[in-house]
Design goal:
570 residues, alpha/beta, Alkaline Phosphatase, subunit A, eleven-stranded mixed sheet, four-stranded antiparallel sheet, 17 helices, globular
Length: 570
């Protein structure tokens, strides 16, 4: 299929007619024509990328390929996800809240009162019809490469949920080279090649390169048959452990010697110059435990700046290999007809992980598994993360980071790119990850099965298609009465219009071991006045607090949320 010579206006007309219901095809017409007109879909998800980590979002890291896609597409500055990875991915592939889709909490982290409860299975459950299943049923090739994290068993694997071909890391993370380093525990990280568990990786394995090349291999195997493809490229970078090839790291040598406070300032300035922030926005505040750059000695500064160099290398490598994939699509004539959606799964990772995951023995792992000499930092046998100070620069104006229900944990960089629709625009209206599946189905002219699928009852999607927004037919898809909620490990939040309430530790990481959410202090913010969530105005707005607490209760009841009796220290 080569659409390079198709007039873009005809594609726009077709999209308008199909998405507004003005054009109806007979079953025979669908069979003969649909595959030739429907777009390919490329869904790119990166892992723990901060809001400001791309050049298009204010970064100094060289990301020309992703920047080009964002700047010629639609940049989404108010895009929400879950506080961590697998709950986000469950919503992305179901269009339904994670507490209903099986990831009410992360795998193996169920509190006693959550165990054996529907919505808390620890995998993408069968109350939902998965996006790849539906697209495959409707004539799409379906391919996946990268992180799955939505089921370890064969019947919950990518293949079982509709991917025709897949190479998948099953766990939440892993080392980025061939030694199969797990992020928790001492066993090898688990991978599936289609439906087969594998024992080893190629000697030259580097996650970002390998996942990209594998996806290209899948697309290439069938691209002559004129069927559209759905390709899910789920990178593990830049998730810890921070690892990258030496040549990649060397490109960033010395770039962060001025420290994280200077980096934060520079990125905020760049965000404003790109008109992605209001100029009067107030800087976020460091946490009490954060160390000032000047309080570090020379050796600490040297090692800390190298952590950020490795992180930057991982991000720039993501850009390089996405560029390779885009070049491949252009070479085979599929670029013009490929809808690309890019997103991070949550905010930047800022936890002191040896303390946050102390029960998993990370501190012991650090002492026994690896070589952390300065020269070896970033190698396959190193196990590193960059901490809260660099993460603050990564999330930019937002409060906190991954794992929290404040903005730094749940607001992520995202953009959409489709050649026939691109108008180099920026949209600041609220969009949620649940909205992506209905968007992709509408774009593909595929109907969700509703409440029954493959002889089982399922839940209807909760998300709203943003295709009218992408077509510039509306300025927003959610009005001021729309409610979005979040809960993970007892940290909670709900947003209604510009108002938001949250429950989470106010000053430190570790005051949240046994949350009593109904009794813990709620904080209230007006995001239109205070997007960085600096000023809790709950006491001054009792009527608004009652309204927001009612919104929380409705969200909690509608999605079967079970507040955990106890939580891990994350």
């Amino acid at each position: 299929m080569n659409l390079n010579y198709i007039n873009k206006m005809s594609i726009l007309v077709l999209l308008f007619l199909t998405t507004t219901g003005c054009y109806k095809q007979s079953k025979d017409e669908v069979t003969s024509n649909q595959d030739k007109t429907r777009p390919n879909i490329l869904l790119i998800v990166v892992d723990d990328l901060g809001y400001t980590d791309l050049g298009a979002f204010g970064s100094e890291i060289d990301t020309p390929n992703l920047d080009a896609l964002a700047k010629t597409g639609m940049t989404l500055t108010n895009y929400y996800v879950a506080p961590t990875c697998s709950p986000t991915r469950a919503m992305l592939l179901s269009g339904i809240d994670n507490h209903l889709a099986g990831m009410g909490t992360m795998y193996n982290e169920q509190a006693d009162n959550q165990k054996n409860k529907v919505g808390y299975e620890g995998f993408l459950n069968f109350q939902v019809a998965a996006l790849p299943n539906i697209l495959k049923d409707s004539g799409y090739h379906t391919y996946m490469s990268g992180k799955w994290h939505l089921g370890y068993d064969e019947d919950t694997s990518p293949k079982a949920r509709g991917f025709e071909r897949s190479f998948a890391l099953l766990a939440g993370g892993a080392g980025h080279f061939s030694n199969m380093m797990s992020i928790l525990g001492s066993k090898k990280a688990p991978y599936r090649n289609d439906d087969v568990l594998i024992d080893s990786l190629p000697e030259d394995f580097y996650s970002t390169e390998f996942y990209t090349n594998k996806l290209i291999e899948y697309i290439d195997s069938n691209h002559q048959d004129e069927k559209p493809f759905f390709a899910y490229l789920a990178y593990t970078a830049p998730h810890w452990p921070l690892q990258a090839p030496i040549k990649s790291i060397e490109k960033h040598l010395g770039n962060y010697d001025d420290g994280y406070e200077v980096l934060y300032k520079n990125r905020m300035t760049k965000l404003k110059s790109l008109n992605l922030l209001e100029h009067e926005i107030v800087n976020s505040q460091p946490l009490l435990e954060d160390k000032s750059w000047n309080s570090l000695n020379d050796e600490e500064k040297k090692r800390s700046s190298k952590l950020m160099e490795i992180y930057a290398a991982m991000v720039s490598d993501l850009d390089q290999y996405v560029g390779n994939l885009v070049s491949y699509l252009k070479d085979i004539g599929e670029y013009e007809n490929t809808f690309i959606f890019f997103m991070s799964d949550n905010g930047a990772e800022g936890h002191p992980l040896d303390k946050s995951f102390s029960e998993y023995g990370i501190a012991n792992k650090l002492d026994t598994c690896c070589d952390h000499s300065y020269e070896n930092m970033g190698a396959a046998d190193s196990y590193l993360w960059y901490g809260p100070e660099w993460a603050r620069a990564g999330v930019g104006p937002w409060r906190r980071f991954k794992g929290f229900t404040s903005e730094g944990g749940i607001r992520a960089p995202a953009f959409a790119h489709f050649a026939p629709l691109n108008d180099a625009s920026v949209k600041s209206s609220l969009i949620h990850v649940k909205d992506i599946m209905p968007t992709l189905l509408e774009l593909a002219n595929v109907k969700h099965p509703g409440t029954h699928y493959k002889e089982r009852e399922i839940l209807a999607m909760q998300g709203t298609s943003i295709l009218p927004l992408l077509l510039n037919k509306v300025d927003r898809v959610h009005d001021q009465n729309h409610i979005e909620g979040w809960e993970l490990f007892g940290k909670t939040a709900v947003r209604k219009g510009d108002w938001k309430i949250i429950q989470e530790p106010e000053d430190d990481y570790f005051s949240w071991q046994t949350p009593l959410a109904d009794n813990y202090k709620w904080q209230l913010f007006n995001l239109s006045d205070d997007p960085s969530e600096l000023n809790d105005i709950a006491e001054d707005n009792p009527t608004k607090m009652l309204e927001m607490l009612d919104a929380w209760q409705n969200y909690k009841d509608e999605n079967g949320i079970i507040i955990p009796e106890s939580v891990m220290g994350f």
